[in-house]
Write a structure and sequence with these properties.
Order of helices and strands: EEEHEEHHEHEHHEHEHEHEHHHHHHH
Structural class: alpha/beta
Radius of gyration: 20 Å
Distance between the termini: 43 Å
Bound molecules: flavin mononucleotide
Number of strands: 11
CATH superfamily of the largest domain: Aldolase class I
Helix content: 40-55%
Oligomer: single chain
Largest sheet: 9 strands, parallel
Strand content: 5-15%
CATH architecture of the largest domain: Alpha-Beta Barrel
Length: about 325
């Protein structure tokens, strides 16, 4: 598939996740095989108002290319203006979030709220396209709920409105993250459009990646499984080419990557207190390791990077 100037074969995409996929985490996943990354979603209105935190969120680095900046909003003019601002940060594409299920967002007819107002959805895509020379892509869901699945119309509409790629989280808004993602829609949507289709929802294992590709989708997006196991990109690529699974990740590999990620987070200062913000990542890195409850409790108390690194190394040394 083609995205911007890149020709990609079965790309694996790191899902945009608010408060998770900051630059430091995107670099970890890129190094482990993610082909495309996307920033956390950023409010178009905040970019227009020059809000510092919003501008920080859309900083990218060349090593993560192709990389997209994700925007959300409900005012077409705001999306147009924000797309032009985002373009100055030099991403490879601008993605529009049309899938966020959270109440406050849908109440403002943004995110998945657009699935209840397709004329506005269309205006938003067209306005964003008109605001930038970069390719514009759309990430959305099947529909508002099981009784209003609109993805076939939406897929054709976004293509006609100028979108260059569609990502489909195969759930409805009503499902939020519950129930199962229905991947059977990918096959149907793929047949209806000619822009690349990225499948998303419930990828947990390398085998899942292969199964999702068998629907005919062009790329596979991975979210929560990458938080629990950033190695999934490398593992899935190996499985796709050999049909075999890589050996388990060792304790030393887990601890070393955790430290590297933390060091990146502190160096890049994606937020005010990177060590505290990093706490959400311990669960993923330490999952399945022996006797981790004490370690995890200790780490949750520590506030200095040197102390965290010492504690992690002490754990690794006693378990080698
Ligand atoms: C903590 C969290 C934050 C998320 N933030 C975003 C976001 O900023 N933009 C977006 O399009 N989707 C967001 N999502 C949805 C994911 O991108 C993805 O569509 C969803 O988690 C399903 O994929 P998965 O089953 O592989 O996790 C978020 C999901 C989670 C769990």
């Amino acid at each position: 598939m083609k995205l911007s100037k890149y020709e990609l074969h079965q790309p694996l995409v790191l899902a945009p996740m608010e408060d998770v996929t900051d630059l430091a985490f995107r670099l970890v996943c890129k190094q482990l095989g993610a082909d495309i990354t996307v920033t956390e979603f950023t409010a178009a209105e905040a970019l227009i108002r020059n809000v510092g935190r919003a501008l920080k969120k859309i900083e990218i680095l060349d090593v993560e290319r192709p990389v997209g900046i994700q925007l959300f909003g409900s005012r077409p003019e705001a999306l147009k203006e924000a797309a032009a601002i985002a373009e100055t940060f030099n991403p490879d594409f601008i993605d529009i979030n049309c899938g966020c299920w959270v109440k406050n967002h849908v109440a403002r007819t943004e995110g998945a709220g657009l699935l209840r107002d397709l004329p506005l959805f269309e205006k938003i895509v067209k306005a964003t396209v008109s605001g930038t020379k970069l390719p514009v892509t759309v990430k959305t869901r099947l529909g508002w709920d099981q009784d209003s699945i609109v993805i076939m119309d939406v897929a054709k509409m976004v293509e006609a409105a100028g979108a260059k790629m569609l990502t489909l989280h195969c759930r409805t808004r009503a499902q939020a993250h519950r129930g199962f993602a229905d991947w059977t829609w990918l096959e149907r949507v793929k047949k209806a459009i000619s822009i690349p289709l990225i499948g998303n929802g419930d990828i947990m294992t390398p085998q899942d990646v292969k199964t999702m590709f068998s629907t005919g989708c062009d790329g596979v997006m991975i979210g929560r499984a990458a938080v629990a196991n950033p190695w999934i990109f490398k593992q899935a690529k190996h499985y796709l080419t050999t049909n075999e699974l890589l050996p388990e990740i060792t304790i030393a590999e887990r601890v070393n990557l955790c430290i590297e990620h933390l060091q990146n987070a502190c160096r890049l200062k994606s937020c005010r207190n990177p060590v505290l913000a990093f706490r959400k990542h311990y669960v993923g890195y330490l999952k399945g390791l022996p006797r981790i409850s004490t370690l995890r409790n200790d780490l949750m108390q520590l506030e200095k990077i040197e102390d965290v690194i010492d504690r992690l190394n002490a754990y690794a040394n006693t378990h080698l």
